[in-house]
Amino acid sequence: MSDSRSARFPEGFLWGAATSAYQVEGSPLADGAGPSIWQRFTHTPGNTFESQTGDVACDHYRRYPEDVRLMREMGLQAYRFSLAWGRILPEGRGRVNPAGLGFYDRLVDELLKDGIRPMVTLYHWDLPAALDDQGGWLNRDIAGWFADYAGVAFKALGDRVDLWATLNEPWVVVDGGYLYGVHAPGHRSRFEAPLASHNLLRAHGAAVRAFRAGAHAGQVGLVVNLEPKDPATSSPEDVAAAERSDAYMNHQYLDPVFKGAYPQALRDIFGEAWPEFPAADFDVIREPIDFLGINYYTRGVMKHDPERPPVRASHVQVPGRPYTAIPWEVSPESFLRVILWVRERYGNIPIYVTENGAAFADPDHVRDGRVEDPQRVEYYREHLMACREAIRRGVDVRGYFAWSLMDNFEWSAGYSKRFGLIHVDFETQARTPKDSARFYGEVIRTHGEALGDSQIEA
Ligand code: FCB
User: Fold this and answer.
1) For the chain, first and last CA: distance in Å?
2) Burial (CB count within 10 angstroms: exposed 0-12, middle 13-18, buried 19+), residue 344
3) What spacing in Å lies between the alpha carbon of 169 and ligand 1's midpoint?
4) What is the distance between the alpha carbons of residues 270 and 19, in angstroms, rounded to a whole number?
5) Residue 2's pLDDT band (boundaries 50, 70, 90)?
6) Average pLDDT, stretch 78-106?
7) Could you report the per-residue pLDDT of 210-257, keeping only the tens digit for each?
8) Cβ(81) to ligand 1 under 6 A?
9) Domains and CATH numbers, the chain
10) Dihedral, 147, 82, 252, 232 alpha carbons, nearest 10
11) Is the bond preceding 275 in cis, omega lying within 30 degrees of 0?
């Protein structure tokens, strides 16, 4: 790459950063909001690191003007955030709470005032507890509940928000919440998992239909997390374990949305726990979407593990490879691979990278107003290079959102894992942009030239 212009991203490429409601807002019950399943889960001791909760988090609910100012100073063009369903509909359905809606109204206006385009996620895991009491994602009625809630949000914000994501990472909702119990609502059932997955997909499709029915301007899509799955060894057992993991994580949600059917492999994995679903459901599920949001963090190296049903696979660490603090392997080439794979399997749908980033053990203290995070800078450099390479190969990648705008409540890991471009001191709520924020700002300012012109190969 000698021509410096080719180091640039396409005109109009959208540069952003992301958060989610429960992870940053705090004040989860303020102004008449109904509690969510994460409120309950975190207030049950032992479920999270040091039983930490999102009660305060980054206090974004009250400090959003400062946060928007920091976004502007970084040069962000877009901010992806989620709505807390229970702020808007305290019981999950029925009565709308204007005070809760008011927060998002003010946030959107504040963003637009600074020229920052909002991308709104309708569901980032914080189901109203009142709906969980009626079965939550296991109740087929939830597709209608979700579509009604989506309709309220489209109507209230659709005049100013033109990028909408229905669900964030249905795979994590189910794997964490219904199969292994490490996320809210903390169930462990291989019988429930396929039902929850299916109802999430039906809810997604019903919300897309509500968007179309309202004739809203803008685009609506689904956000999934994807990980290439590689076998730990070339043994047939490990190869089969990687294939099962791939079907379970990468095909389970995209095949129904783009092809209208689940892969056969899921029936084999879940066995007697896999139900027959009504054929008509797939008409709703495959309602065409305008874009696919991809969250990418790592690849999975899998070995056969009979102790871990139903997929019977577990992760191994590869000696000599770099890992983040989670620990997830740093593998930018797998990021390129997964974007190319989406086009190959599902066609050239417009893509937004809706999350990508890394937790590292940053220095505890801000020194001279600075937080040095060289590993995160390197992570972003390499992954943005992978993204640029996908675009060079003709994939329609339209934007990129760093995870995360700021350090926040990392679910069951509490505040122990920091993903932010901006450091948050959780004692004082002081914000300090890290070196990675400056680097990302420079990348945005130069349309990618600041990445240099070396290349990532798949
Ligand atoms: C993703 C989630 C996001 C954050 C990152 C680290 O799975 O969507 O909320 O926790 O992981």
Assistant:
1) 17
2) exposed
3) 8
4) 33
5) very low
6) 98
7) 999 999 999 999 999 999 999 999 999 999 999 999 999 999 999 999
8) no
9) 4-451 (3.20.20.80)
10) -170
11) no
Q: Is 169 a catalytic residue?
A: yes
The question of whether 355 is a catalytic residue gets the answer yes
Q: Could you tell me if the CB of 20 is within 6 A of ligand 1?
A: yes
410 C-beta closer than 6 A to ligand 1: yes
CA-nearest residue for atom 9, ligand 1, is 20
For residue 192, report the distance from its CA to the centre of ligand 1, in Å.
Answer: 22
pLDDT digits (tens, 9 = 90+) for 397-434: 999 999 999 999 999 999 999 999 999 999 999 999 99
- Over residues 37-51, the mean pLDDT reads 98
Q: What pLDDT score was predicted for residue 241?
A: 98
Name the residue of 121, 167, 403 whose CB sits within 8 Å of the most ligand 1 atoms, as the mutation to test its pocket.
403
Task: Please identify which of the residues 25, 110, 355, 389 carries the catalytic annotation.
Answer: 355
The response to whether residue 355 sits with its C-beta less than 6 Å from ligand 1 reads: yes
Distance CA 55, CA 36 (A): 12
Q: Is the pLDDT of residue 6 over 80?
A: no
CA-angle at 18, arms to 13 and 23, nearest 5°: 175
Rounded to two decimals, the pTM is: 0.97
Between the CA of 278 and the centroid of ligand 1 the distance, in Å, is 32
